[in-house]
Amino acid sequence: MKYNRFLDVSRTKQQQYFKDGVELLYPSQDRPIKIAILPAYDMMDPSPTGWVPAVAGEEESDFYCAVRAAKFVGHGNRRAKASFLSPRTFDIDADDPYEAFYDYCSRSDEWSYLTKDRRGRLLTGEVEGAIIPRTRTFFVANVVDMSVGPRGGVFVTELSESVMKSILYSKRKNGTRLDGIAFQKDRSGKLAYGDITDPGNALVIEVSCGGKGYIARPAVDASGMIERVEIPLTLLQHRMHMEEPATFIQNPESPQEIVNRLAGMLRGYKSDSGRDEIEALKEAMSFAYGDKYSIDDDAKEQDDPFCSAAKATSEEDPEEQAEEVEKAVERVVDNEKYVPANQKHEINERIGKKKIAPKRPNSSEHEDPAPGEEIDPSDIAAVRAMLSGGK
Fold first, then answer.
1. How many CB atoms are closer than 10 A to CB 381?
2. Which of 4, 39, 100, 231 is deepest in the core (most CB within 10 A)?
3. Helix axes 255-266, 278-289, angle to 10 degrees
């Protein structure tokens, strides 16, 4: 039997904190997904197919991990926005300038507009959602896509905290406490759905939009029976280590790098009162951390081609200076990279040198399959390389 590599979700800046090779699977408002959650690794078993139950007594195993992140941050529509992975995903005591900035703005009369969802206020689509949205906790787990039947390959799904709670934890409805799917018990005191991650009889969970957010519930077939599925054991070896998030998630940016990126997003924008939005960041950082983190007022001079042109020609004839600056303007208009006059000779020498052709890969070496290429699942090395994105 052979299967195709499915690429359901393209990598975007909103998911940029996942490492390359991680295949992501998300629901959408118009397309629910059906998933089977894979179990945690058995750390006492050297076999890559070893696993442990989702719940042992009153404790859950590491079949999932919680990731703190802020998505769709910045001005513009969603495609122009980016994401911030919280340093507290790995260290609960770490500084998180993004959360400090959100907390400060949300309590400020002047800057609270940065944290408010303005989708209903701007019909032009220039702003979608809040400019600085709240940091949220996401439920991340290994899953198999059951939306159109068992599909070859393991995906990682990232769902909101509310969905995580509906799968795992307790909630209240009309004053009555209801346990989530993982912990819900019947009258005999046994788990109502058993081990939801048991690969021999895994529960199929449907995730769909419930109006106020996504909800998770057991999937049922046409006769009303709860759907269960058997997961091929060969797929278990392709799970990401949920107990070690650093194996599939990028290292968080340092607090100073977070401050720098926020400053770049805010620089050039003003509040309704005419104040630069970067002032809000300065106030927030000073309030939360004193002078621990620095904020540059202006963009670096090397980003300004006109300034570079003037400096590079400072010792030339005035007529040549004017000519060089004029050429710099033309290059900016044509989106060309400006080359200072005092570097032209060096660049010309580089161009004149013979280029060395890149080494051709050895055709006998293993190469990753292209998307859609058929693969024999019995070739474990090829399957693992395909799903991990490694070489």
1. 8
2. 39
3. 150
- Distance CA(18)–CA(85), nearest Å, equals 10
Beta-carbon contacts of 167 under 8 Å, excluding residues fewer than 6 positions away, are 37, 139, 180, 181, 182, 196, 205, 216
Side chain identity at residue 182, one-letter code: A
- List, for residues 34-93, the tens digit of each pLDDT value: 899 999 999 898 888 999 999 887 788 999 999 999 988 998 777 778 899 999 999 989
In angstroms, the CA 362 to CA 365 distance is 5
206, 218 in Cβ contact below 8 A?
yes
Distance, in Å, from the CA atom of 249 to the CA atom of 87, rounded to the nearest integer, reads: 12
> What residues are paired with 206 via a beta bridge?
34, 217
Domain ranges of the chain: 13-96+135-247, 301-352
Separation of alpha carbons 135 and 103, rounded Å: 10
Task: Report DSSP state, residue 35.
Answer: E
Distance separating alpha carbons of residues 246 and 21, to the nearest angstrom: 14
